[in-house]
Design goal:
There is one protein chain. The chain starts with a helix and ends with a strand. The longest helix is centred in the N-terminal third of the chain and has 13 residues. The protein has one domain: Immunoglobulin-like, CATH 2.60.40.10. By secondary structure, it is mainly beta. Strands 2-6-5 form a three-stranded antiparallel β-sheet, with no helix packed on it. Strands 4-7-8 form a three-stranded antiparallel β-sheet, with no helix packed on it. Helix content is about 10%, strand content about 40%.
Length: about 110
């Protein structure tokens, strides 16, 4: 019992110095695209940190019509409508940490 108590105290004293892997997870992209109406697209989103592998999903908004997001972070398809779109994407790592980032996505 005494050993468990000592180990618990040591772990508690070190806890503030441990950095969570969730703090390092990030989406590196600053922009998504550009995309052009009628031109096939293939854009790989970039994640960093956390614990790979990552899963990507739409959090809010929508990609331009004709484009889809794969769970591996690839935006592909052929955009059909010229406009600006507001879209938020979430990256989730293998231990459940997640980060969301929003973009204005343009189709010219």
């Amino acid at each position: 019992m005494k050993k468990v108590l000592i180990l618990s105290l040591v772990l508690l004293s070190l806890a503030p110095f441990a950095q969570s892997a969730c703090n390092t997870l990030d989406i590196l992209d600053e922009v998504v695209g550009p995309f052009y109406q009628g031109v096939p697209a293939n854009f790989q989103l970039s994640g960093y940190g956390g614990t790979a592998p990552y899963t990507w999903s739409t959090y809010a908004g929508a990609l331009p019509p004709g484009l889809t997001l794969s769970s591996s972070g690839v935006i592909s398809g052929t955009p059909t409508t010229v406009d600006d779109y507001f879209w938020c994407v979430t990256i989730t790592d293998s231990v459940g940490c997640h980060v969301t980032k929003c973009f204005f996505v343009s189709v010219y």
